[in-house]
Amino acid sequence: MAVLDDVKELVKLFRHSAFVMIVLLRNLVLRFDNMQITNGTKMSKQSRLSRKSTGQFDPKKWVDEGDGLLSSSQNIRDTWENHRVAFSQTVKQQNSGQRPTTNDWSLLTGLPRASMLLLGYAVEMYLKAGIAKAYQSCANKMFERDVKSRFGHKLDDMAKELAFPFESNDQQQFQKLTDMVLIDARYPIFVPEGDTYAEAVNQQTSRIWSKDEYDDLHALVRRVREHVSKIDADSENPTSFHSFNIDDDGYLAFRAGGHLPPRITYRLSAEMRDADHKTASDVKSLLDERNHHQILRFWDQAWIYEDGETSKGQPKTSRRQQPSTT
After folding, report:
1. What pTM does this model have?
2. How far apart are CA 256 and CA 183, in angstroms?
């Protein structure tokens, strides 16, 4: 894909031009900010996500993007470690006439930030692969809307949506990755009120340069990938899917198993809304034991979402039920 070509080119040029590195990385950031919502009219004739979906509706494509970004992050980090050693040697030899160039300084500060930025984007790709799996049989437009507006860069929210097995420090680590994507590794230093510029720079440098910090975040990203890869791919935790249309323009999508909580997503038909049948209970009343026994069996423990609208008619996803999983 074009994004991965940019990443490969970025790594190839790191040692030669800090300016080119910054331009390519900026283009990469902009492309990722816009890749989630593309014109899907030509990409898929299907109105709902399925195992035949392509492009942004295909979980594997998100995983592939994540793999490229994670590998690039590690490559950049390794390049920086080597550059840091060479930079220190140059500084020690200043008395002999050698001194770091502007490009040397740019790489010293830019490479570790780039490695953190790509690490944050990698985990976002993996999490959105999981969201695509969770949204199987839901409307393409609902997925496109939610992956941009409901989730965006909210890594912690996506991890919870996918029932990721949190460890003690994971929530703080997800926040650090989110901060890398939104602020630390992407924009000029933000100086909190009450701090000096020097204090803010030192704190940011400590966060970004720390080997332990990078290794811990990298390990979390790998765990997320492992969890997402198990969704719908574990014979010991099989997945059941069921979906059907409601009148001409509504639907219900159900899934259970596959390392995710049971999920029911519905869209009311115009006929139901006209009859003032607008609640989850009204949808449940459409089910019968003979044809929908599995959905009825899981109804009370399922996470239930409505693919609906606001009072002003704007598309909106609303959570109607989310029992505790503990």
Report:
1. 0.84
2. 37
